[in-house]
Design brief:
With about 130 residues, the chain is an all-alpha fold. The chain has a domain of about 80 residues. About 45% of the residues lie in helices and about 0% in strands. The chain contains five helices and no strands. Helix 2 packs across helix 5 and helix 4 runs antiparallel to helix 5. The longest helix has 18 residues. It is rod-shaped.
Length: about 130
């Protein structure tokens, strides 16, 4: 009888211990106020700009500023005052895509908008 009680208490202790454990996972880029994910300008943002913005008649280096072609995007964004690393959510670049007004063909995916914000939050490196 005594061994059954000890085994029962051990089982309850194990179940209680395991049920109290959990792992709170916050994926990078899922929380605009959480830690920013690492974003590569050339590897992550340029493809977004190329597919959605650097189109003929838009930000192709001839029609509208900033130039968002692969070769001119970083200089176009940084020299035009489109990025505010002190208050990233106030950046013109982020505000335009977050509001959905750019690109005019339709809003970017939320993950792409988050990448832009995280890149700015990381100091807008030319990487």
């Amino acid at each position: 009888m005594k061994s059954k009680i000890i085994m029962l208490l051990a089982a309850v202790a194990v179940i209680t211990g395991l049920s109290g454990c959990y792992k709170d996972i916050i994926s990078p880029g899922q929380d605009p106020n959480g830690p920013p994910q690492q974003v590569s300008f050339s590897g992550d943002l340029v493809p977004i700009f190329t597919a959605n913005c650097a189109l003929s008649g838009c930000h192709d280096g001839t029609a509208h500023n900033p130039n968002l072609t692969a070769s001119g995007a970083y200089n176009g964004i940084m020299s035009g005052g489109y990025v505010n690393t002190l208050i990233p959510t106030s950046s013109i670049l982020y505000s335009e895509v977050k509001s959905g007004s750019m690109p005019p063909a339709g809003a970017l995916k939320a993950t792409d908008t988050q990448k832009i914000l995280d890149w700015i939050r990381n100091g807008a490196p030319n990487n």
